Amino acid sequence: xxxxxxxxxxxxxxxxxxxxxxxxxxxxxxxxxxxxxxxxxxxxxxxxxxxxxxxxxxxxxxxxxxxxxxxxxxxxxxxxxxxxxxxxxxxxxxxxxxxxxxxxxxxxxxxxxxxxxxxxxxxxxxxxxxxxxxxxxxxxxxxxxxxxxxxxxxxxxxxxxxxxxxxxxxxxxxxxxxxxxxxxxxxxxxxxxxxxxxxxxxxxxxxxxxxxxxxxxxxxxxxxxxxxxxxxxxxxxxxxxxxxxxxxxxxxxxxxxxxxxxxxxxxxxxxxxxxxxxxxxxxxxxxxxxxxxxxxxxxxxxxxxxxxxxxxxxxxxxxxxxxxxxxxxxxxxxxxxxxxxxxxxxxxxxxxxxxxxxxxxxxxxxxxxxxxxxxxxxxxxxxxxxxxxxxxxxxxxxxxxxxxxxxxxxxxxxxxxxxxxxxxxxxxxxxxxxxxxxxxxxxxxxxxxxxxxxxxxxxxxxxxxxxxxxxxxxxxxxxxxxxxxxxxxxxxxxxxxxxxxxxxxxxxxxxxxxxxxxxxxxxxxxxxxxxxxxxxxxxxxxxxxxxxxxxxxxxxxxxxxxxxxxxxxxxxxxxxxxxxxxxxxxxxxxxxxxxxxxxxxxxxxxxxxxx
Length: 611
Hints:
Low-confidence stretches: none
Distance between the termini: 72 Å
CATH class of the largest domain: Mainly Alpha
Number of helices: 21
Radius of gyration: 37 Å
Strand content: 5-15%
Number of strands: 10
Strand order of the largest sheet: 6-7-8-3-9-10
Shape: elongated
Structural class: alpha/beta
CATH superfamily of the largest domain: ABC transporter type 1, transmembrane domain
Largest sheet: 6 strands, mixed
């Protein structure tokens, strides 16, 4: 039941739309039945002569408790008078009445569709926004374990299943039960004996449908998971198309994708088959019940044992009963939709309920500026019980240029990720001006820090938007200043639309050096007190590196800078260098002092031909 409650809460967040949909559906059900019942007088006109009709007296008003009988008797009285005087006019009167009932029925049905369409899309929008927001809030460790394609599948196909569930819920709880109840009361009123027979036969259909629904949920879950793998494969391979082409791997990749695609096709086919089987089985069983009623009802009429069950009433009974089966079949179909969507809701909840340890402490203060020092006090970090950093003790004074070096996998980037609170330390503490960063407002902490990494990720926005990324209102004066300091102004002006030029997905319209200078301009625009440079020039050619290095030197002026470097020539002038090995600081000092100790730093420099 918790699943139905969740869909209910999603739906009734928009109470006005929900209740309007319910009201329109109720009126649709009433006029749908009325359009059928009004056919009885037509049949009476056809099957009986005017002198054979039973006289209907003009009814007396006895209050709202007798409203239905009053309307029925008033209609029959007017019709009786017309039939006696002019049967053809009576026929026209009945046909117009039926047409009006059909017209109102369809007007109210469209009203339900009109409000329902806004409701379902609003719910989809809200859930997709929640998923996107949660995805961005979750720590990097979560994204390392999850495929991006699977997250996209949850935000698209899984959310679309919830859209179907919203409609199904409104029909399942509010429309179809009312339709069943109203039709059932009408059937009992027309023939209690036949209705009792029908009710004894219908549970067989319900049992068969419930078995199909349970199987459908299991298959639907597997299908959505496989779709996530398919999205992940598409995302990965389209992103790596250059490598695929360079290694002549198109055929291999297509074959791998084809296998995954075939697997999804098989699962999706099974889902559709099971989903479509439910209403077909229900309709077949319903037809069996209907024919049984025709048989039993026909016998009652022929034997004259059912009082008041004339031929025209029995024919109308069969028509109404066929409409009684429609909401029952709809319940079956909606149950199948709900079972299918439940698998999607489980996947959505696994994301929405994923724990996020990187949240602000209660009443966490904001930090406005950096005044003194950054300190790492006995910092340790483990990932999945694997120690990455141990016993890091290090103090960095404001305005200093410090470098972090060491072999690959020694924990250099992880140490800076801890400063940014992409992860939280396992032991110890990182402090800025004596405040533990875990007790500082996360947004204000990151506002103090600028990052330029080895792979400069640019967005498919204009050059100006990329430089001012994070600002809703772009200050073009600051953008121009940042671009000039980063040696990016000239090549940006040379673009087709200058600062209004779109840079393409991940900035693919630019060269590596140009992307890096845009990234540096972005950091300059932010004007951070603390700067992290993570292998910012390692992937560049000599000419680009020279331009980028000049931009970095401009950026680092009067800032506290942490530089992660494999090219040790770029950190020779650092105020302090720490050397990491297997997650521990094994050396610390200036270039000259570390070279004199003849340790790991000296050995790394020697490998690069430095002295």
